[in-house]
Amino acid sequence: MSDVGTPRSFDPPRRRPVPASFRARNHLGVEAICELHSPTLIAVVKDQCTGCSEFIAQQAIIPIEVVVVTDSPAASQNYAVLLAPEFIADLEARFAPIYLLVSGNPLEVVGEGTIFSAAQVATEIAPWLTS
Q1: Which of 29, 41, 49, 123 lies in the 20 to 30 Å Cα band around 71?
Q2: What is the percentage of the chain residues whose pLDDT exceeds 90?
Q3: 105 lies in which domain range?
Q4: CB burial class (10 A; 0-12, 13-18, 19+) of residue 69?
Q5: Looking at the domain assignment, is residue 1 inside a domain?
């Protein structure tokens, strides 16, 4: 917690490459190839997660493209997000719920942290978007 009581994450970013596209299944089981652009926020969510639910409901406040993925079939169904366990492994996403800010050409992780809420994530990524 910050000194004013606002939750924030403390994960230092680990710069690493991000594939420009990945395969995923939507909540109906339909496979698709998803392409990523710079900048994009990737949110990795899990099932039965209050912060994940709030993030998904309020993700429109994030001022860049948002891609929400999970490695949980239940979370994919419950939240109607993309099921992409191989992509999550490729990203080396440590533990859900986590966000990864990807940018550059080629794409790489430039920021990451734990998801508590959409407002918290928007605040944390703001410095990267203005630099």
Answers
A1: 123
A2: 76
A3: 21-130
A4: buried
A5: no
Is the CB of residue 81 less than 8 Å from the CB of residue 70?
A: yes
Place of tokens 């050409």: 105
pLDDT of residue 4: 47
Q: How many domains does the chain have?
A: 1
pLDDT tens digit string along 29-77? 999 999 999 999 999 999 999 999 999 999 999 999 999 999 999 999 8
What CATH number is associated with residue 77? 3.40.30.10
Instruction: Give a yes or no: residue 7 inside a domain.
Output: no
